[in-house]
User: Fold these one by one.
Assistant:
Number 1:
Amino acid sequence: MENDNLNQLWKNQVGKNEALGPNDIIAKAKAQRSRQYISIAVMAITAMMVLIYAFYFAFPDWNSFNLGLTLMITSLAFRIVLELLSLYRKEQKVISLTHNAYYDYLKKYYKVRLLINGGLTPMCFLLYIYGFYLLLPYLEQYLSAGFYTYILISGVITFVVIGIIIVKSILKEHRFLRQLRD
């Protein structure tokens, strides 16, 4: 939000919370928005890779391999749509609100973000892991033992890292919401 008029409007108003001034709110909103763009890009690339894999290697008959791929793709697609809707909704609101109204909007926005990151994201993540789990017997059957072990270990490490990122994101947004309330 590089809008100088918006910045000037915010600076001229008396905020409810002097600890978080207009520049602080703008900086935090920009940082959060850039994290959303990165999340969307990573999820989209992952979804595309799984989708391409599904088109090349999915068996013609329905089985747990296809179910696993479907769960992985669906959970990623659902999460991408949630992020895009959240981002778009915030972009629409930002231009038309005064500092105090935007401050109130941010509180509501981050409550919704906590619901998304605290409830829906872990559910999508668990569906993705379950989809991966459903692929394992087929991967073990068709891949060499060494490559299967590599996929298994790298998958577990990746899931642990993603889990840590999700928890950190939830905690960061929770702290920001707490700052807005104080």
Number 2:
Amino acid sequence: MVSQVEKGKTQIFKAGILNDNRRRTCVDGFSLVELVAVIFVLILMVSIVYPKIRTGGDLKTVSRQIIGTIQHTYSRAESEKQPYRLHYDLTHGEYWVSVAPTAVDNDASQDVKPDQPRLLPKGIKFAKIETMHFGVVVDGRAFTNFYPIGRVEPTVIHLRDKEHETFLLSINPLTARVTVSSDTE
């Protein structure tokens, strides 16, 4: 016969629900080995997935974020009947949206840079920006105009990662649809 003290000792190694029926006495639950195995598998999965989530620094993710910004800015300019600009700072790897003073003004010195512009992740940069007004810009700042009549300045954004893979984001001037193409240099 098993004493109450021995039953208490065996319950330390089991976690779960104690079924105490008159006919049989058993402990349903998971053993310590099973719990350790599950925790090990979870830690392994997190260690594989977390670095990709944490950095967010692949070209596809950054391209999607910029495309979302373009689509949102286009919608705002058209719905609010207000000209907007999407600014690019190639030197610091930043971009932001501002309201343009007028639709024909090409001087961005009046445009205010926000306190928290969007930063490109480490390892990704603007290689160059091609616009109708600026031509090809490889350093400094440039912007894309979004007009209230539903048009956008034709722009090609070149994004490059540390492996020198380049994504080209081409903005259609009539629909603001962005086509993405890959170019490995």
Number 3:
Amino acid sequence: MHALKADTYRKFGQSTHPITLKGALLDPAFRVVVCLRLCQAAEHLPPGLRWLALLPARLLYRLASQLAGIEIPWRTRIAPGLALTHGRGIVVNAGARIGSNVTLFHGVTLGQRDHIDAQGRRHTLYPVIEDEVWIGPHAIIVGGVTVGKGSRIAGGAYVFEDVPPYCVVMGNPGKIVKRDCTPDVDNRYSEEDLPVSQAVDHHHSPSTLSNQ
């Protein structure tokens, strides 16, 4: 549950069990994150316990997602420190990959894009969102694009090409309007923010995955 501790820290600036529980009860978007992490944790249990824990976790997640109006498949690869601001209307394809300390606002779409080659074969590609990316309200990012570390995608932007690290993108189609920007990350999570006993290596950050 290391990832959930990081998500709690992003949301509230500290991470304790009472704070996580209070946030899950009172904040619909954070409740989705909590239930998503519960599903992911249940999937890694020993086979004898996996389905016993996964079934109720999935039911809770489906209910939380419907109440919040958020569609993020629980199998989506999401590194620690996810922050959903407001949250309603977020839609994420299961094939997308999301790095650590990423912020998603309401109405964000991270979707697939299909390409038909000259031989008529369909190729489906998904976005990679690297660490510390900020994505504003109703922004749309589709296809096999990588949004580089620390970049900011303005509200309403439509992105279908790669974005280098530390860039600001605005407009439809999305254009880079600033380079070398400062990442916008409230309560930036790092391993040092949690006790050593809670810190583990997480090798699934899209900053690394995008090079695989």
Number 4:
Amino acid sequence: MTQGYVHPEKLVSTEWVAARLNDPHVRIVESNEDILLYSRGHVPGAVHIDWVADLNDPIERNYLTREQFERLMSKNGIANDTRVIFYGDKNNWWACYALWIFELFGHTNSAVMDGGRVKWEQEGRSMTKEVPEYPATKYVAQERNDTTNRAFRDDVLKHALAGLPLVDVRSPGEYTGKLYHMEGYPQEGALRAGHIKGAVNVPWARAANPADGTFKSADDLRAIYEAEQGLKPTDSVVAYCRIGERSSHTWFVLKYLLGYENVRNYDGSWTEWGNLVGVPIER
């Protein structure tokens, strides 16, 4: 599964996963927007990581601490040398989001199952409701590194004022200010609609094949991000959406499939920017 990707090791196929369901050196992680999906059936042996309950701090608008991450990993039988394979619904939105957060703590021995739940189900592969139990590990994490792959509002403001590339991965309606949220969702969460000044609009879903949720080839991705938008692998790029989940999908595409060395995900995204006082927006 190379398809011209710069880092093909960050994607695995459903066939690859099916052949390693009992591999003790591999842990399969399901992470979804719909947290009830896992209980209805999941890949055998997969553990469930809830993007709200497991990855976010319940009080502070931030992610879990190093100690909390270590406990999460230990509870799910993940060791420092375990290869973690993420998959989920929404064409792997939340799989990419979970992988992104894991990498903030230095766990880069990971990949995404191309196509996620959709492709696994389309192929009629086995599903189970059985929740696995694994021996606890003694995981040792690094302190969360928020400098390499994550952007904060002040970083984004400097980035925008400097005229550096910003990619708004939301729908055209959200980008132009006609919508405050995705179509079909409650229109709430921000006082203003529009986009960060200077941002280009490349909806995240353009990177996926509609039929099965797999990622498009590197050539097709370059046509979207480089031929159309003029981005280059040497650029410093910030991607954002509404809360950082859709943009983590684009972050994964740019960083691993196309090899951009300096791309960050702004997880505050429009829920923060659309409520800030004195920041530039466009419609």
